[in-house]
Design a protein that fits this description.
This protein is an alpha/beta fold. It has one domain: TIM Barrel (Alpha-Beta Barrel). The chain is 36% helix and 14% strand. It contains ten helices and nine strands. The chain is globular and about 55 Å long. The two termini are 20 Å apart.
């Protein structure tokens, strides 16, 4: 669920993919549940998902003392200087900050509707892995169950996702390779079916069944509910990383930000998100998405902890206090 950082010719892909994935979330808090009970404080690591290396130079970010960060990159980044330069800058900044990078591969920025063959995928990700020897944590496909949008982007079937996972295991020996990275959505039965089909294919391939799984639970937490997350965690049957999660400041029409109401709502969601992570013992990492609001005049998706000028919002303060940073009493942005 990231704002466009794509070449201008395919910027529309990012917008439409966000709409497809989040359009079914619905109104936040429509049937809010009580806050989950925590099982143990500090039982999971907290990091940020982001694609802009400027974040690492911001004192507001530095005082959080993050140890982990997540970055989404096209699977064919090595074939395109623009994509590779973006990845190189981000990973270099993260490593300079002594943060462990989780890299999630995704569709091409140049041919988003064309899924790669297994040999093509394996060749490109192998080259990427060799270029960044200190990166040892990967996801084979970001939000693999998102689905297809004709003429805009394509997502792999569960069978193809299993084959990409196997291909990544082959070329990244000794790496931590996350299993599926999925969206929850308002109705989770398709997600559960996707997980089951993926597992069947893994068994058929006689490859290693994942022990760590990735989940984006925007739909659940932005409703202040937990049952979707719990059901998907159960279906995974292993350790879970919330590889994207957070409070939606704005996603029209279900999540408006009129007169700053979205800022308050998002902060409430983030508090709930942390409580949920503490209450589910299988959750071992939380990657809050994302650091800053998009810089476009027309912002489609906004879950930023800071505004477009990297000034802190109410959600930032929640994260700051959760991590016991030194100076959380900051002046808040009004947008």
């Amino acid at each position: 669920m990231r704002p466009a950082r794509r070449p201008p010719s395919i910027a529309v892909v990012a917008i439409l993919s966000i709409a497809l994935a989040l359009g079914v979330i619905g109104q936040a808090g429509a049937a809010a549940s009580s806050a989950p009970r925590a099982h143990a404080a500090g039982s999971y690591l907290t990091g940020i998902g982001n694609e802009n290396p400027k974040m690492f130079a911001n004192p507001l970010y530095q005082q959080l003392h993050m140890r982990i960060v997540r970055y989404v990159v096209p699977y064919d980044a090595v074939a395109h200087p623009y994509s590779l330069d973006q990845a190189t800058a981000f990973i270099a900044a993260a490593e300079a900050a002594h943060e462990q990078v989780l890299v999630a591969f995704y569709h091409s920025e140049y041919t988003p509707t064309k899924l790669p063959s297994i040999p093509s995928y394996q060749r490109d990700v192998q080259k990427f892995v060799k270029l960044f020897p200190h990166v040892r944590q990967y996801e084979s496909w970001d939000e693999s169950n998102r689905g297809n949008k004709r003429g805009q982007f394509s997502s792999p079937s569960a069978v193809a996702a299993a084959q990409y996972y196997q291909a990544l295991l082959r070329v990244c020996k000794g790496c931590t390779v996350i299993g599926l990275d999925v969206l929850d959505a308002a109705v989770i039965s398709p997600t559960l079916s996707y997980i089951s089909e993926f597992k069947r294919e893994i068994s058929r391939l006689e490859t290693v069944m994942p022990t760590i799984w990735g989940l984006h639970n925007y739909s659940d937490v932005n409703r202040l509910e937990s049952w979707r997350t719990r059901a998907i965690v159960k279906a995974f049957g292993g350790q879970v990383w919330l590889t994207e999660t957070g409070g939606l400041v704005q996603f029209e029409p279900s999540f408006p930000n009129r007169h700053g109401a979205g800022l308050t709502r998002a902060a409430k969601v983030i508090r709930f998100m942390f409580a949920l992570a503490s209450a589910v013992p299988q959750i071992k990492r939380v990657y809050v998405y994302d650091w800053t609001k998009g810089t476009s005049r027309v912002t489609v998706f906004d879950a930023g902890l800071t505004n477009a000028r990297e000034q802190p919002r109410a959600g930032y303060v929640v994260v700051c206090r959760q991590l016991h940073a030194a100076n959380c009493g900051v002046k808040l942005a009004s947008n």
